[in-house]
Design brief:
CATH superfamily: Apc35880, domain 1
Cofactor: heme b
Strand content: 15-25%
Number of helices: 6
Radius of gyration: 18 Å
Largest sheet: 5 strands, antiparallel
Keywords: Iron, Metal-binding, Oxidoreductase, Peroxidase
Distance between the termini: 33 Å
Shape: globular
Number of strands: 7
InterPro entries: Dimeric_a/b-barrel (IPR011008), Dyp_perox_C (IPR048328), Dyp_peroxidase (IPR006314)
CATH class: Alpha Beta
GO cellular component, one term: cytosol
CATH architecture: 2-Layer Sandwich
GO molecular function: heme binding; metal ion binding; peroxidase activity
Length: 187
C-alpha cells in the first residue's frame, strides 16, 4: 500500500484538537537514552524502534465538547498546557495512560514527533503519530493502555474522537549497522 500525507506544523506545536503535542518529550542528553538501543542489545545498538500511526479525528463532535471536558480527556489545560492532576481511580486521561512507569518507579520516555494533517477535499483531519523508542515494549504498553484501558475497559477517551487508520512498526538501524550490511553485500 502506498500513501502520501502532507503534514504541517500548527501554531506552537499544537495538534488539530488544540493541545500542545509532545510536551513530555525528552530533551538534551535524555533524547538518546530514550530513543537509541543501548548496550543491552549490542547487535542493534544505536538503532531506534519507530512506531507510525495515522489517526483521523472527528472534529465536529470534539468541537462540541466543553473545554473542561476536552482538558479532562487530554490531561492538560488547552491554553497554558499545564498538566492536570492524574486520576487516582476510574477514567484516566490520555496523558496518564501514555505515561509508562517501570516497577522501580522510573518513567520510560519516547520521543514523539507528531504532525497534524488535513485533507479537506476528503474530509480527513488528524494526527500522524511518530514515536521513537529505545525499547519497543514502552510504546506497545502505551498503546495497550490507550486501547484496552487501565483498568481494562477504561480505554482512552481520546479514542472516542480519534481513530487509528493506519499503523506500522519499523526498526531504524544505526549508520554503523547499515555500513556493515553494505560491506557484507559487496563482499
Amino acid at each position: 500500500m502506498a500513501d502520501e500525507v502532507a503534514c504541517f506544523r500548527y501554531f506552537d506545536s499544537r495538534d488539530l484538537l488544540g493541545f500542545v503535542d509532545g510536551t513530555a518529550n525528552p530533551t538534551g542528553h535524555e533524547i538518546g537514552a530514550s530513543t537509541l538501543v543501548g548496550s543491552e542489545d549490542q547487535e542493534f545498538a544505536g538503532g531506534s524502534y519507530v512506531v507510525v500511526q495515522m489517526y483521523l479525528h472527528q472534529m465536529q463532535p470534539w468541537a462540541r465538547l466543553p473545554e473542561d471536558q476536552q482538558e479532562q480527556i487530554i490531561g492538560r489545560e488547552i491554553v497554558s498546557n499545564i498538566e492536570l492532576p492524574d486520576a487516582t481511580s476510574g477514567q484516566k486521561s490520555h496523558k496518564t495512560l501514555a505515561t509508562i512507569v517501570g516497577a522501580d518507579g522510573t518513567e520510560h520516555d519516547i520521543l514523539r514527533d507528531n504532525m497534524p494533517f488535513g485533507r479537506p477535499g476528503q474530509g480527513e483531519y488528524g494526527t500522524y503519530f511518530i514515536g521513537y523508542s529505545r525499547h519497543l515494549c514502552v510504546t506497545q504498553k502505551m498503546l495497550k493502555r490507550m486501547f484496552l484501558g487501565d483498568p481494562p475497559g477504561m480505554n482512552d477517551r481520546l479514542l472516542d474522537f480519534s481513530t487509528a487508520h493506519t499503523g506500522a512498526v519499523f526498526f531504524a538501524s544505526a549508520p554503523r549497522t547499515l555500513s556493515e550490511l553494505v560491506q557484507a553485500v559487496q563482499a
